[in-house]
Every structure is written in structure tokens, then in C-alpha cells.
Amino acid sequence: MTVVEQKLLGLNGDEAVAYAIKQVNPDVVAAYPITPQTIIVERFSEYVADGEVETEFIAVESEHSALSTCIGAEAAGGRAFTCTAANGLALMWEMTYIAASLRLPIVMAVVNRALSAPINIHNDHSDSMGARDSGWIQLYCENSQEAYDTAIQAWRIGEHPEVQLPVMICLDGFILSHTLENVLTLPDEVVREFIGERSFPRVQGHLGEAEFRLDPEHPITMGPLDLYDFYFEHKRPQVEAMKRALPVIEEVGREYGRISGRTYSLLHPYRLEDAEIAVVGLGSTMGTARVVVDRLRSRGVKAGLLRVRAFRPFPAHEILKALSHVEAVGVLDRCASFGALGGPLFMEVRNAFYDSAERPIISDYIYGLGGRDMSMEMLEEVFKSLEEDRRAGRPLELVRYIGLRE
Amino acid sequence: MGEMSLREMAKQPDLLAPGHRLCAGCGEAVTVRLILKAVRGPTIVTVATGCLEVATTIFPYTAWDLPWIHTAFENAAANASGIEAAFRAMKRKGRGPLAKYEHIDVIAFAGDGGTYDIGLQALSGALERGHDFVYVLLDNEAYMNTGIQRSGGTPRCAATTTSPAGRVIPGKREWKKPIDEIVVAHEIPYVATVSASYPTDLIRKMRCALEAEGPAFIHAFVPCPRGWRFPSEQTIALGRLAVQTCLFPLWECRLEEGRPRYTLSSPSLSIAKNPERKRPIEEYLEKQGRFRHLFRPERRDDLIKEIQEWVDLKWERLLEKAL
After folding, report:
1. Burial of A233 (0-12, 13-18, 19+ CB in 10 A)
2. Which H or E run contains B321?
């Protein structure tokens, strides 16, 4: 396979997602508007109004119904997409677990926004982080290009026969959703060929083996009452499917790289090979951090970074390999986990090293809540404190708050 | 479709198989079995959380001989929207696993909790958007699956576990929510009330609902021996009494040239023509333990009268629309 010719478009993150979904041409898009996701539904409505897609677009009356409608559509064997943010995702909560547990590979863009109260429309990761145990694959995007690319790969990952799980594409509200970028886009037919047709697992129904979908010729019962005698057996395969998604995310990212020239993986390291200090984080902040790493390197500081693209499933083994040699690691959490030891990413990263002989000093940096900017200066401060930790041989503070007035 | 005779009805396959775990005398079991006799071709069913769902699908068993899905309590209408939309998209594209079917009927079943209360928003949204599906409300007038708690569909004075008949408060204080009028106000093609006590009327209406293009709503009155406290062999008799007292009149309403046109069904029409056939509500109330406190330890004539007046008023208002 060779890299195909691509069209350069000026798109913000929301438009990039909408454009990718237009090319995917799913059967059903059901969504409810919420800032900063709104542009996705607006653009997609225009594609529908202009006859550029064959999709049934359903402007539902709530996010709960948005996901419920997608569940109905996917159970009927269709492809379904939705998108939301913050309180919208919170309203969907019940259905996020149900979508994942019914093993329906729905794709949802979450345009990350702070959760109320107080109400705030700007970016942090408290919304999707709250859904981290719901059974969805979560991929965090650094820029609009990645949002576009991930909105295509997500179908292949979620629908993979070994996976069969829904996928959340997380992109930072406003920072990505409303910022115009150059985005390389694949031709429609390349996208359609890449995603192919949805395949269905075969299950044992009451009339014998059948595909796991609603079909009058092969009736099965989906979502029955499942008590202590079987529920547990139905949960374990979800755990395993998540594990199997790890190589699938890599495999799909590589295959996508062969046609687009942009390869994606679970983790995206930068100048990490010989780094003494490094930050680990998600999303758009890591683009800023890359510039800071270069700046520090030019001053002779051995700085590096690790961007975590896949937060669910969590690539613990790969993180261990990537960071074992680093002396001090700062985890950037754009989310507070109230009452916990630190932010969600910190807890995962630190936990990954528990059994490791080679253990960096690991501390947490909570930043950017409610859209507070993370400037290059703030990131330099982070590296500066990591350097101090490194010299001290221990975290001088386990959890620090960056850019906060105290 | 004309009315199916009982003989023809008996020949229709049972799509809700026996052996499920609904209670003896459960009105839902009888109603759903009859409703499915009206199925006319490829059909997909979605069911809200409730008695019907838990008692018919205890894994690894199922009583359903139709493709069936349950996801949650408040979203049967939204699930149905997605199923219907996916089918429509596949037909348009000419590909996808359901594209081969000429038509698929989608039926959503929900109880009164899932309709009057927690599911009202999803129902309203789906009706407004005009999805082609039939929503069947199985109204047993309380949250029976969780143990008889009051809902918006529970009648005034009924004792439930969250509206008990106490020393001060005699059961539920509010009147039953006028769900049919709320649904009719959505200006959908077809709305009807049904009772398993009148099976041929029920099946005919369900078939009309399936044939309607766009959303249709069937409100089934479903006596619950456990929740209403009456002997399980009385389900059909009690359902009949609800119609004969005009507490639950049988009618259908079609949208014709933008106007809702109500028609009384024969059991209620005969009472409208012969008002002396209308039976007093007391006969209905006294047969149920949930209204026992209206009769014992002392008779509450005031409340019985109040209920009778409410029934009379509702019946008069229906007659104004239907005659």
C-alpha cells in the first residue's frame, strides 16, 4: 500500500470529526447539541441537508436518547455515531455502560469540557475521565488532524472481531474544537475501503447460532435479565476484549499510516530515549509540551515527553518500557479525582510501576481545570520542579497544582 | 383490518412463549400475547425495564420468538427510534443486514413508570420526530417490578408502598396523569386504548397501529393481582369492570386532516347509547385491596363520591370529543 494523495482542508477539530464521519457515511447519527461539540452536529446536519450522506440524522431530545438511539441502531446491525461533551456525557452515563456491555461498537466524539458546577464551557478532562470505567475505548487527540484520523480508525478498532467495543474520540474543547488547522483528508473511497463493512460476532441464540444483532429471520434476545449465575461470566470477556484492543489500536494505527503517511500508536513519545526528566499527558497540551522540550533541550536539559493516546485500554506495559529509564516523571492531569491520591492518569501511571525494579520518581501536576491555559512557561515550571525532584531523589511534592492562584 | 375471530386468533402463532415467570393472572402476559397476535410481518421488539422484561428473559432463557432488545428503563422510545432509523438508512443505501426486508415493524413495550414518568421525555421526542413505530403502554398503575410504588399512572386513593393508606393520608393524593391526551396532543396518526378483556378489539387496534404510517400509541389497561390485591383469576373480569364503569373507556383516535377524531369502541359506545349500563365505580373499587381503606374500617363515602365524580367528568369529556 502506498500513501494516497490527500486534500488539505482548513478545519477546526469539530469540523474535522464531522468531515470524517461524512466520509464514513454511517447509518445513524443521533446527537444533541452542547458547547463545544455543537459544530459537529451543525456540520453534519448540513451534509444531510445537502444530500452528501445517506445517514439518518436524528436530532434527539437529550443525550440520554442520543446514545439510546445509537444503541438501537447498532443492535439492528447499523453503524451509529454520536458526539457530546461534559454534562451531555454525564446525562448519557447510564447508557455508556449499557452500550459497552452490549458490545456495540458505537463511535462517539467527546469534545472535552469541564463538568458543572459551577457551569463552565471550557476544556478539561473531567467528563471523559469520569467515564473511564464504563467499558469504552478512549483515544485522546493532540490536534485536529488526529481527530480526523481517529474518527476513521475508531470504526476499525471498535468493530474488530476481537474487540467489539464502543470507542470515544476525545478532543479538547475550544483548544481543538474551535481552532482552525490544516488537515489532510483522504479521498472518500479510501476511507470507505479502509473501514469496510461491519462484521458481527456469532452467538448462541435460543434457536441456535446467530449473528449478534436484531434480525427477524434469526431472532435473538439482547439485554436480558442476567443475575449472579451468569453476569460475572459476561463481565470477564469485557475485560479481555479491552486487553485485546491494545494490539488492535496499534495494528489499525499502522495500517492507517501506510495509506495516510500518519502512523498512530498507543503512546507517542518525543525525545524520550535519553531523557532524565519527562512529562506524561493527554491531548493538546502535549503539543505545547513538545515545544517546551525542544527549548529545554537547546539549553542542555535532557527533557522528554510521552503522550498517552490510548487511556482505555491503559497501555501499562508499554508505559513501563517507555519510562523506566527516566529519573523523574511528571504526570499532567487535566482532571481532579476528588478524594484520590492524585489525578486519574497519575494513579494509572504510578500503579504501572509498582512491581518494577526500575522506578522513576513520579509526581502529579493537576492543571487547566475549567479551561485554564497551560502556557509554555507553566510547563517549564513543571520541568524545573521535576529537575528538583530528580536532584532530591524523591518527589518534593506528590501532587502539585499548576497555574492556580493560592 | 376487520376484527379477527377468536378462531382465527387461536391459529396465530404465540410469539410470547409459555414458561415465562410473570405472575399467575398477570394482565401483562395476556395482553402482550394478544398484541403479538396482530404481528403482520418482520418485527423487532424493544422493551423497557420492568416486570415484562425481567420475567420473560432470565438468562439463558427467553420467552420471545421475535428479535428483542432491552437496554434501560426510560428509553424504549429512543431505542425504537434507533432501530427504525437504522432500517430506514439500510433501505436507502440498499445495503446492510436489514436492507433485504421490504418493511420491518418496530414495537416498544413499556410500563406506566417507563411511560408516564421516567420515559415521558424519550416518548415525546420520538413522537415529535415521527418515527414509524408502535409504542405499547402496559399500564398496571404502579411500579410493580420494584414492589408496587406509585407512578404518575396510579389512580387517586390507591394504596401503594410509596403512597400507603395511613392514618392521615388515604393512599395516593394525586389523580392519574392524562397520558392519552398528552400523546394525542402530539398529533400522531393513531392512538387507542385496549383491554385484554376485549381481545378482538385489542388485536384489531394493534393491527391498525402497525398499519399507521408514523408513530402509534396503544394504551393497554393491565390489572395486576399482586399490586392491586385481587385474586388472580379475576384479571379479565376486573379489566371488563374498568370499561363498564367508564373508568377506562375503549376508544381510538385517528388524526384526520389535522384533527384528532375520536371513535368509541363498541363496549364503550353501547354505554354511551345506554347510560343506564354504566356501572358505579364502587363495584370496581371494592374488589381491590389497594382501595380497601375506602371501605374499612369505616366507609369513606366522601372519597368514593369524589372518585365517581372524577370518572363521570372524564367520561363526559370523552363523549364531547367522541360523539
Report:
1. exposed
2. helix B301-322
> Does ipTM top 0.90?
yes
Burial (CB < 10 A; 0-12, 13-18, 19+), residue A332, is buried
Distance from CA of A364 to the nearest CA of B (A): 38
In 3D space, the residue among A304, A312, A287, A402 whose CA is nearest the CA of residue A360 turns out to be A304
Pick the CATH number of A7-200+232-260 from 3.30.540.10, 3.40.50.970, 3.40.50.2300, 3.40.50.300: 3.40.50.970
Tell me the CATH number of domain A267-402, given options 3.40.50.920, 3.30.460.10, 3.30.200.20, 3.40.50.2300. Answer: 3.40.50.920
DSSP string, A161-216: TTT---EEEEEETTTTTT--EEEEE--HHHHHHHH------EEEETTEEEESS--T
- Give the whole-angstrom CA distance, residue A301 versus residue A287: 19
What are the extents of the domains in chain A?
7-200+232-260, 267-402
pLDDT computed for residue A1 by the predictor: 63
pLDDT interval class at B5 (50, 70, 90): confident
The answer to whether B23 contacts chain A (CB < 8 Å) is no
Q: Which residue is associated with the grid cell 509554555? A: A376
User: pLDDT digit string (tens) for B221-230?
Assistant: 999 999 999 9
pLDDT digits over A210-228, tens only?
Answer: 999 999 999 999 999 999 9
A36 to chain B, closest Cα gap in Å: 23
Give contacts of B79 with chain A, Cβ < 8 Å: 68-69, 71-72, 75
**In chain A, which residue's Cα lies nearest the Cα of B62?**
A221
Contact B209, B185 (CB under 8 A): no
Interface probe, candidates B49, B83, B129, chain A, greatest A C-beta count within 10 A? B83
Distance from CA of A282 to the nearest CA of B (A): 32
Any bridge partners for residue A268, and if so which?
Answer: A307
C-alpha angle B299/B304/B306, rounded to 5°?
140
Inter-chain CB proximity B75 and A54 less than 8 Å? no
